[in-house]
Amino acid sequence: MTDESTLGPKPTTLTGGCLCAKLRYTVTLPRSHDFVKNAMTCQCTQCRRQSGALFTAFHRVPDFRWTSDTTASLAEYGASPAAKRGFCRDCGSWLYYRGQDGYSICLGTVDPEILFGENGGEAYGRALANGFGFHEWRENEIEGVTSDIPMLMRGQRHQGMFPAEDVKAKL
User: Fold this and answer.
1) What is the pTM of this model?
2) Contacts of residue 84, Cβ cutoff 8 Å, sequence gap at least 6
3) How would you write 84-142 as a 3-class SS string?
4) Other CB atoms within 10 Å distance of the CB of residue 50
5) What distance separates the 2 farthest-apart alpha carbons in the chain?
6) CA-CA-CA-CA torsion for 129, 27, 63, 36, nearest 10 degrees?
7) CATH code of domain 10-164
8) DSSP, res 159
9) Cα–Cα separations (whole angstroms), residue 26 to 12, 40, 97, 116, 165
10) Are strands 39-42 and 134-136 parallel, antiparallel or unpaired?
11) Ranges for the CENP-V/GFA domain (predicted)?
């Protein structure tokens, strides 16, 4: 486990949205937000198919609000009874995962100024995707590919989905 002080600067507000910019959001993080415990990744087949990537990086947030004029482009898909995945029906961007323990935003949708400091912004990607939280569906690791990514070797590694009641107890 790590101390949060090693993660560098931490944001108080996150902004982001979909590729076509029809859906925009803002997240306000409380001072007590635990960046270590709320960082997560998933290698399940559903997340892979939804994202087109070998693993998805998320960050659990207390809630978020839409800042776009309308959410008419928002759709949700339930690949399983346990959760919904929010996406833009116009451009297809996957924005969040909504499960029993709340929302997890897909980190690829966070604005570049916040994620990696584009145009002189403060880079908070390390705090958001630190790898010290938990990793779901590690039995789906691809030997020599995702099994060798250092970030995926830290934190709590789980076979299957981390139980929601355990997540709530840690928040």
Assistant:
1) 0.83
2) 76, 77, 78, 97, 98
3) EEEEECCCCCEEEEEECCEEEEEHHHECHHHHCCHHHCCCCHHHHCCCCCEEECHHHCC
4) 19
5) 45
6) 30
7) 2.170.150.70
8) S
9) 10, 20, 16, 17, 26
10) parallel
11) 14-125
Enclosing H/E stretch for 46: helix 45-51
Burial class (CB in 10 A: 0-12, 13-18, 19+), 52: exposed
Dist. CA 46–CA 79, nearest whole Å: 7
**Residue 56: Cβ within 10 Å count:** 23
pLDDT above 70 covers a percentage of the chain that reads 86
Residue with tokens 């100024």: 113
Angle (CA) 40 44 47, round 5°: 80
Could you read off the pLDDT of 49-97 as tens digits, one per residue? 999 998 899 999 988 899 999 999 999 999 888 889 999 999 999 999 9
| Arithmetic mean of pLDDT over the chain | 86
Residue 91 · residue 19 · CB < 8 Å: yes
